[in-house]
C-alpha cells in the first residue's frame, strides 16, 4: 500500500510540473536576468578602501615622480594623482612609503590601497595580476656609473655588479642585456645610489627620468653613460576586480590632458612641454 501511494504522489507531482512547465521556465529566465543585472550593477560600481578617498600605494623614493620632503609626498605623479582624485570628486591619500615589488600583489589582493602609482611600466607579466589605466608617461632606461670609473659603454659592464631596485624593469633589463652581470636588487633607489657611491656595485640600471634627476640634483659625482630606448610606458595600477575605478581614472586622465592640467604638471617637473 505504501508503494502504491508513493507512485500515485509521484505521478501527480509530474502532472503538476508538466502543467506549470511554462511558468517555471519563465520564472527561471526572470531570475537569471535579475542575477545578470545585479552582476552588471556590481561591475559598474566603484569600490574604494575608504569612502571619499583615493588611497594610493607608492615607493616614495622615485623622484621626480614621487618622493618624500619631510613627511609630505611630492612629485609629478603625486601631483597628477591629486588632480585625478579631485577630478573624480575624491581626496588623494598616500600610504606610508611601500616597497615597490609589494605594490602589485597588494593591489591585486585588495583591502589596503585602491591604486598603485610609482612609475609602473606596463608589462604583460604585471597584467596577469592587475589592470593598468591609460598611459600617463613614456620612459626609457639609463645606465649610471661613477665619473672616475673609466666605464664609458654598457659593453664594459659585462660580468660586473649592477644595482637596480627590485621588481623594476631596470633590474629585468640588466639581467637580460648585460652579459654575465651580477644584478643586485635593492629595496629603494636611494640605497642603489648609495651602493654605487660606496663602491659596492659598478653601475646602476633604472628608469631614465629618475637617474637624470638623481645625477643632476644629488649625485653629481656620477654620469649617465647610456640612454636605452626601451619605449616603456607608465600607467596606474588598479585591481582587476575594480573595472569601474579604472574607467573613472581613464576619464579623469583624458579630461586633465584636454584642459591643459597634465601639460602644466609635466612642465613643472620636467621643464618641457608634454605636447
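^ C-alpha cells above, recovered residues below v
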Amino acid at each position: 500500500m505504501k508503494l502504491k501511494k508513493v507512485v500515485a504522489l509521484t505521478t501527480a507531482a509530474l502532472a503538476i510540473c508538466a502543467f506549470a512547465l511554462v511558468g517555471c521556465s519563465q520564472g527561471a529566465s526572470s531570475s537569471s536576468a535579475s542575477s545578470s543585472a545585479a552582476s552588471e550593477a556590481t561591475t559598474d560600481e566603484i569600490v574604494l578602501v575608504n569612502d571619499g578617498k583615493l588611497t594610493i600605494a607608492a615607493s616614495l623614493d622615485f623622484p621626480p615622480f614621487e618622493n618624500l620632503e619631510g613627511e609630505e609626498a611630492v612629485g609629478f605623479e603625486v601631483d597628477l594623482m591629486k588632480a585625478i582624485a579631485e577630478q573624480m570628486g575624491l581626496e588623494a591619500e598616500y600610504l606610508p612609503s611601500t616597497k615597490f615589488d609589494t605594490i602589485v600583489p597588494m593591489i591585486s589582493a585588495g583591502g589596503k590601497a585602491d591604486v598603485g602609482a610609482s612609475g609602473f611600466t606596463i608589462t604583460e607579466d604585471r597584467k596577469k595580476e592587475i589592470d593598468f589605466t591609460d598611459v600617463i608617461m613614456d620612459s626609457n632606461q639609463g645606465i649610471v656609473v661613477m665619473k672616475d670609473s673609466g666605464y664609458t659603454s654598457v659593453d664594459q659592464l659585462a660580468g660586473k655588479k649592477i644595482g637596480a631596485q627590485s621588481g623594476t624593469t631596470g633590474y629585468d633589463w640588466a639581467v637580460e642585456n648585460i652579459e654575465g652581470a651580477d644584478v643586485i636588487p635593492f629595496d629603494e633607489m636611494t640605497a642603489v645610489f648609495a651602493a654605487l657611491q660606496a663602491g659596492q656595485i659598478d653601475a646602476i640600471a633604472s628608469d631614465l627620468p629618475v637617474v637624470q634627476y638623481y645625477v643632476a640634483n644629488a649625485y653629481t659625482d656620477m654620469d649617465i653613460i647610456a640612454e636605452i630606448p626601451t619605449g616603456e610606458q607608465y600607467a596606474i595600477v588598479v585591481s582587476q576586480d575594480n573595472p569601474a575605478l579604472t574607467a573613472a581614472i581613464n576619464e579623469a586622465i583624458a579630461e586633465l590632458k584636454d584642459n591643459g592640467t597634465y601639460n602644466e604638471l609635466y612642465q613643472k617637473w620636467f621643464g618641457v612641454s608634454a605636447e
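DSSP finds ten helices and 13 strands in the chain.
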